[in-house]
Amino acid sequence: MKDFDLKLPDTLEAAVGELPAEYSRDGAQVLAGGQDIVTVMKDDIEQPAALVSLQRLGLDGMQWDERGGLTIGATVTIQTLAEEASIERGLPALREAARSVGSPQIRSQGTLGGNLNQRPRCPYYRHPSVSCFKKGGSVCLAEFGFNKYAAIFGGGPSYYSHPSDLATVLVMLGATATIAGPGGERQVPLAELYVLPDQALDTETVLRPDEILTSVSIPAPAADARSSYLKYKERASYDFALAAVAVSVNRGDDGVVTDARVVLGGVAPKPWEVPAAAAALVGKAMAPEAWTAAGEAAVADADPLEHNGYKVHLVKGLLFRALEALV
To answer: Most buried of 33, 196, 225, 286, CB within 10 angstroms?
Structure first.
């Protein structure tokens, strides 16, 4: 890893001013908890000449509004989200997702903003000696090589799967990201923050090189909404989802589903919402027949590669169990 300058700005405007207007591999980048960017630098994926720290900018607060919505600063740690009692009461799926991330050591250092903006975990992309499509190569090696962890939705020309647990839940919750740049602030629905590889290969989000994600706002859930997050990983800790499900269900007094939302993680280059799965639940009682139908709808458009067809079955099983947990 080459030497770099560490910038410690005291204001958001100063931090934005340190960032380059155009992307370059050696341009200055943002530093929050450092759990991903330092690894990326060690693996020679990026070699920024400077890191711009967010630690002095006061982005580590959380605020509930009078309606029950929550705004979370970008440098709030994942461990805070995992432990905060008010989140467990008001947004249990978010707490479940936070508790599933890495290990206690990683959660205590990693931040909300860093988790949302981490780079792909594809072994070809992360290997310092491999030139994959996202790093300037001519082909996505996962498409024809070892693709156990690759996407089964939205892939091509690159087939990485999105690694963030928090993003999957926040998309399901209808969250909005606040982004600061030279022109001031803008709000982006989290569902629109991420881009597919056929839209851009050198980035995974709509963030420009001179912008900083400063907070995420979650609207108040409906009084009758129930939500859950369920993830399957190979190891008990310090691992990413092979597949994950974030689901929210609203039911009337008769127990029939009036609204639902289903978002999948670990199976696409971004959090993958499946409206067809939600539609399969609406108008039905919460029962195994509806959960099975939702699972079939969730994977109807899946396009697995040679080694990751198991994800189709995994998604169906996770969705069934997540829905079962709500009753």
So the answer is: 33
Asked if the bond preceding 182 is cis, omega within 30° of 0, the reply is no
User: Does residue 270 lie in a domain region?
Assistant: yes
Distance CA 322, CA 327 (A): 9
**For residue 81, what pLDDT is reported?**
97
Tens digit of pLDDT for each residue in 117-176? 999 999 999 998 999 999 889 999 999 999 999 999 999 999 999 999 999 999 999 999
Residues in Cβ contact with 76 at an 8 Å cutoff, skipping those fewer than 6 apart: 59, 60, 61, 62, 111, 112
Query: What is the 3-state secondary structure of 73-88?
Result: ECCCEHHHHHHCHHHH
Tell me the three state secondary structure of residue 183.
Answer: coil
Nearest to 271 by CA among 279, 280, 262: 262
pTM of the model: 0.96
